[in-house]
Amino acid sequence: MITKSSYRLPMLAMLLALGMGGIVIAQDVPLSVKAEIDWQQAYVGDRLRFTLTLVADSATSVDSIPVGESLGDFDVIGRQYDLSGDGSGGLRHTVDFDLAVYKTGQFWIPQIPIRFIHADSTTSEFMTDSLVVIIMSVASGDSLVDIKGLKPQIYFGSQFPWLYVIAAVIFLAGIIVWIWRRRKKSEAVAEAKPVDTRPPWVIADEAMRKLRESGLLANGEFKLFYLKLTDILRAYIEPRFGVDALDRTTSELREDLTQISLDDHHYDLLFELFDSADLVKFAKLRPEMSHAENDFQKGWQFVQGTGEKRPVGVSGI
Question: pTM (2 decimals)?
Fold first, then answer.
């Protein structure tokens, strides 16, 4: 059992040994950073999707992304993180932010510094592009500029003006179809990203069951298994303890959790798992199957023990 006072020296020795021994050479995957926004024009209160896509090799980690509750003039009302392979041996980190602003005008999403930490502890820093968004009002005063005075009445004679009636009907039908499509699109976006209101330990419990059944360990995909396992725990810790866990490194999270009322047993379970995960993710260590299963049990016991139910055992993966 690793305690708070004894984990540092053994872990440091293992990392130095792996780094000096040159056991594995990371694949040469170029670093890249890309920032995108789904709409460059929107109405007041519309939800915008701002996406950061970061690509790095498997031995390079992404340091914390400095985005809090606001981004420039925009409120950050939601965020989601995903990790996947990029098809060339690297990893693609995708971070989606849901943004909204409640005033009109031209607003800029500012540049964001992104720092990568390499296996040799050196760093590389990139700046995202700044993006502009035009926010309009549904009843903007600008729409009144083109209003002109009434024109003289048109005399149609004795025949009924069918041509004008048909044109007016087509015009109104076009407006109705446009409003309907816009409303359906907004409803589809809302339905595609429902807010999960279940307790965080219930969400984490379900995610860990799916990970256990994913077959990643059986296929020897240890790195992806540990990445997903630690992401599940970070996503659980953030709402459960009010700690910004998704954007923190292991050492930063370790310090944050010493400030809350977390008992030593659960603290040790969590960081024994996180220390093992860092060795697999960044030092290219390939663990034994039994060790990986034991780490999964530690994560399971942490969620069960700190949620609103008592710890229970779980069968092997």
Answer: 0.39
Q: Could you report the per-residue pLDDT of 28-37, keeping only the tens digit for each? A: 678 889 899 9
Distances in Å between the Cα of 7 and the Cα atoms of 158, 253, 260, 261 are: 97, 15, 19, 20
Q: Is residue 80 part of a domain?
A: yes
Residue 142, domain member (yes or no): no
Range of the domain at 169: 163-195
Does a structural domain hold residue 15?
no
Condensed to tens digits (0 to 9), the pLDDT of residues 111-140 reads 999 988 888 888 888 888 888 899 988 765
Residue at a domain's end among 136, 153, 185: 136
Of the chain, the end-to-end C-alpha distance in Å amounts to: 22
* Three-class secondary structure of residue 166 per DSSP: helix
Instruction: Look at the chain and report how many structural domains it folds into.
Output: 3
H runs (alpha helix) in the chain:
8-21, 162-192, 200-212, 222-241, 250-257, 264-282, 289-306
Measured distance CA(254)–CA(258) in Å, rounded: 7
Instruction: Record the tokens describing residue 137, joined without a space.
Output: 């009002």
Query: For 45, left (φ over 0), alpha (ψ -120 to 50), or beta?
Result: left
Q: What residues in the chain have per-residue pLDDT under 50? A: 1-26, 141-145, 310-317
Pair 130, 205 in one domain: no
Q: Looking at residue 300, which CATH number applies to its domain?
A: 1.20.120
Distance CA 196, CA 278 (A): 29
- Compute CA distances 13 → 125, 132, 170, 288, 315, whole Å: 28, 48, 76, 20, 33
Quote the DSSP letter at residue 6. T
